[in-house]
Amino acid sequence: MNCQNIIEDTYTYIKSIENKGNVATYIPELGKVDPAHFGVCLTTNDGTQYTAGDANTLFSIQSIAKVLSLSFALSLGDKSIWQRIDVEPSGSAFNSLVQLESENGIPRNPLINAGAIVVCDILCSHLKEPKEELIAYIRDVANNPGIHYSETIAQSEKSNGYRNFALVNFMKSFGNIKNDVDQVIDLYFHLSSIEMTCCQLSKTYGFLANGGKQLITQKEILTRSQSKRVNAIMQTCGFYDEAGEFAYKVGLPGKSGVGGGIVAVLPNSYTISVWSPKLNERGNSYRGMKFLERFTDTTHETIF
Amino acid sequence: MNCQNIIEDTYTYIKSIENKGNVATYIPELGKVDPAHFGVCLTTNDGTQYTAGDANTLFSIQSIAKVLSLSFALSLGDKSIWQRIDVEPSGSAFNSLVQLESENGIPRNPLINAGAIVVCDILCSHLKEPKEELIAYIRDVANNPGIHYSETIAQSEKSNGYRNFALVNFMKSFGNIKNDVDQVIDLYFHLSSIEMTCCQLSKTYGFLANGGKQLITQKEILTRSQSKRVNAIMQTCGFYDEAGEFAYKVGLPGKSGVGGGIVAVLPNSYTISVWSPKLNERGNSYRGMKFLERFTDTTHETIF
Amino acid sequence: MNCQNIIEDTYTYIKSIENKGNVATYIPELGKVDPAHFGVCLTTNDGTQYTAGDANTLFSIQSIAKVLSLSFALSLGDKSIWQRIDVEPSGSAFNSLVQLESENGIPRNPLINAGAIVVCDILCSHLKEPKEELIAYIRDVANNPGIHYSETIAQSEKSNGYRNFALVNFMKSFGNIKNDVDQVIDLYFHLSSIEMTCCQLSKTYGFLANGGKQLITQKEILTRSQSKRVNAIMQTCGFYDEAGEFAYKVGLPGKSGVGGGIVAVLPNSYTISVWSPKLNERGNSYRGMKFLERFTDTTHETIF
Amino acid sequence: MNCQNIIEDTYTYIKSIENKGNVATYIPELGKVDPAHFGVCLTTNDGTQYTAGDANTLFSIQSIAKVLSLSFALSLGDKSIWQRIDVEPSGSAFNSLVQLESENGIPRNPLINAGAIVVCDILCSHLKEPKEELIAYIRDVANNPGIHYSETIAQSEKSNGYRNFALVNFMKSFGNIKNDVDQVIDLYFHLSSIEMTCCQLSKTYGFLANGGKQLITQKEILTRSQSKRVNAIMQTCGFYDEAGEFAYKVGLPGKSGVGGGIVAVLPNSYTISVWSPKLNERGNSYRGMKFLERFTDTTHETIF
């Protein structure tokens, strides 16, 4: 059975079962999305794409973008990053502030909010125009000049992001934010506002399946070693307190966002993205998780 | 460069650098071990072994044995196991009791002490003679009738294991221990007392690199799916609060013990064991971690 | 209006309102008590008693006895007690094990379970026959040779006291238990099994309203300074995570037990006991709390 | 021995022993204070004052002012206050954010930072010009039109108060802040900036020893019942994680500030203030605590 058939069969099956969970509503814009959306795109390392459903509809990738800001910071060669952010799983969402307090303002990893905020602070220290240079970097990685921030989403995040304001101020109190808190959090809210389609997403993140090199052009985004390490971080920290469950059931490194998107990587082979807005109780796409579990059960290909 | 050369070169290099850390002393027997011991054995899926140093000296594998009790429980087909134990990383050693309290006596995963104690309780529910049947199972997996408990270590664990007594009673208070606490903890202390050499260790755990099948005989120890899942659990939970660091720097699923042993797996390829008694500040073998990091840096083969 | 009238009026009013909450059932014996029981006894410093309802029915005083074991330990002059137990409120019931872990096995105060277990350990270190000598001490303080342990309750506590076994083993792992855990916990379970009537209770604890001296005989149980300090500890720590609420609404130092008893003290004036088995959601007698709040609202006499 | 003699003797003795601890330096202005300052003033309910040392030097009363904002909120009759703030001790400084998270943004009590910020939010909801009306209220209670905010201190708090910004945003994320966070925190920083002398302090707080009535004028600041309850809150929550220790050693309701001031109350008798800038490791005035302990040891008058 070829890849397109497996994608389609899995898609059809998952679409036939109950679409459980709830769309994120902590910002009004996310709450407006049609919960019936469901799209998939697998991009192999040679650039071939296999799709199903709403694979070309734009959605808010939210926290998935944290992998790109991390990649940018790594490519800038900042030496302080692993002194200022750990690489351990966070244990649980519940613990985020607890751990931050007992660990003196050092976030557990760069993919939780606190860690991504420190990454934004690092970017602010290195860049003259952080917002402009970050989106330029992401367009470059995506090989697509049309990728953009959603100002509507960014402003909505800002108007409702009290917990993120709390995080940045709390870390500033420990000395782990070097720049002005308003500048840092503004960059963070913009990072969270980026929109992509499933096809753009799996293509953009293809370098992580390709030893750090952009698909087709083979341009180096990260070194092979950096790329492996980003995959390792996604594996252990990419799904909040469901990282172990995802490793256990799916077996691929990946990252989810509250917009209902997930991207996952089989190193040396392919990158796959799924989007379905309803979230399970741990904040990951309900259908996205089910799809990937069934897909890897069928292909028998995982990193384990 | 062939495998034996890489093993030897890496061994020689690591032996030449400072042997930092401290031997575990929480039970007197472990404290008596010569800290200069250092052995390595890599067993490929065809059964070939490459060694360096003290690869044939017996040592206390301690928590590494938790993977075998888990495998035994999985092979018994108990349906309740994933209701009674989660598969998420524990966040940090510090949190173990905190999390157990806030999560109503459900351990975070089967490789921390609390989780392994619940696994022992499950074994007690299924087996008539738990201690005898567990060692018989392990001898069978190891294909070696000489594997044994160390009664000296088991008694020493018992005389000093107040925190483990606390854990089993605490979980009993939540109803997550079904058998008599003394029977369960006795099985747990015996499990922790097993001794192996590096060569025995990498051979015994070879089934995890071989899709669940014993090396050479191809006898099924676990199904392919179960085997992948045990690897996923080792990947996210095998090194206490250094799981992320190990994933980041080494990139293989593995498990460590406070006796200074580590076993790690490259699926479909090989199993490697390292032993050096001095532990780093997170309780994992100092030289063992360094060796595996350098070894995978050289071979460029990781799951990521 | 005289004291007897206020006691009777308050009693009648509280009896007329809904008897909310639940009888403790964690040990079967407590669950068998008739929830309609309701008794009160106020003993003035001159020994006069004012009563209402079931003031002469025996009930399990449970944790209220922790004040007597503390008094005994203080009278033995052990210097280590305040190095091994703190005098701070515990914050909340939820935190007990959390705090014990982060504070290296030092209980927050001598009136929570962990602290009372350390007090029992101190008694075991000083006494040849701890169980016999403790009950003898309590009979002496009560000036009543009939006070006794309930073996039924003590055995029932033992059969169900997994969390207390967890606590004693946990503290032993930190070195804060010096004697055999089984001996210590046996003394603790016996301490918790003592039975008194309301009239016995307010008379026994009368020394805390009387500058440390037994009522009528004026025999010194504690020095004046020790007596004040026990009152201060009851004030800040006597009601688990409802200590502040009790101070706020009642304004007297006191101690509650899960048997539904409460004893409270107005220094230099009187001691009052209330018993009603149904507990509010924080584990204190529902009617007992209501009674004392209304009583002090009427008398206008509090320590504040 | 009369009161003046006891004050002087105690003062002389405490001045003769080592002046341990450190001046607070988290804002530069506090760090500039001469650590040798030491003043005491006791005001009896008839208005008589007994003093020693620097009793008429202005200092930053810091958190002591939280009692006045609480009194103001109580006098405004807001019904929601005890739904939005608890009255339990906080357990420990360490736990503040932990507890706030696990308790859904409800502060433990109105005297910790988080609770005082909610009180400021309540004032913002009731007042048109919160800053002006708060200082007017305090002048009225103090019967002294000269009491003022220190703009220097308030601005310094603002420039360094990242943890307080974190708190207000964190509670806003739980919906427990109703007004604009910037307005609320500005009022809070001004509240923290008030300066008084020891003599002003013990006179201003005299209403808490006087059944809620201003000394001399007998004007009602709080009802008798409210006054008792504020004393009860100070008793259980006035000294962060040293509340139990203060109750145990001193035995009076009171409140401390990081400027080195302490005010304490013996109901129906007197109010006493002490000021010495060096703080012990729990953030309370080193000499202040020692003075009050020795003073009440001498007078034998405590609430217990």
Automatic annotation (TrEMBL), chains A, B, C, D:
Entry-linked InterPro entries: Beta-lactam/transpept-like, Glutaminase
Binding site for substrate: S63, N113, E157, N164, Y188, Y240, V258
EC number(s) reported in the record: 3.5.1.2
UniProt GO molecular function: glutaminase activity
Keywords assigned by UniProt, alphabetized: Acetylation, Hydrolase
UniProt keyword Nucleus, yes or no: no
Protein's GO biological process: glutamate biosynthetic process; L-glutamine catabolic process
Reactions this protein catalyses: L-glutamine + H2O = L-glutamate + NH4(+)
Family annotation (SUPFAM superfamilies): beta-lactamase/transpeptidase-like
NCBIfam families: Gln_ase, PRK00971.1-1, PRK00971.1-2
Subunit structure: Homotetramer.
UniProt protein name: Glutaminase
Recorded name of the encoding gene: glsA
